Amino acid sequence: MSRYYNMTVTVTGAAAEHRDAVKAAAEAEWSFDDWNEYDGALTASADGKLCAGETDRQFAERLARFIWTANRGPCQVEVKAAYLEDLPYEEFLLEEEDYARLMP
Question: Looking at the DSSP assignment, which residues form a beta bridge with residue 21?
Fold first, then answer.
């Protein structure tokens, strides 16, 4: 079973000399490719599928381990997981009575 997600990762406090390795490690685990650097933080997001029953929490922990290995030490790793297959939404049906109310 695969589940479709958007994953956003923000890495704060990575050693400057290991930032390229941190990016490469993250990209090896998820299809991150467009990195932004701002105020000492690296951020990227991408869509993809979790497979083999892995949960979003397990993915975040696995990703953090690879990032920490590439950084050769701890740094802050924030992962935001948005499940794309069942997003909440609002539905609006506007009919003739709404037309009369909304149109002058």
Answer: none
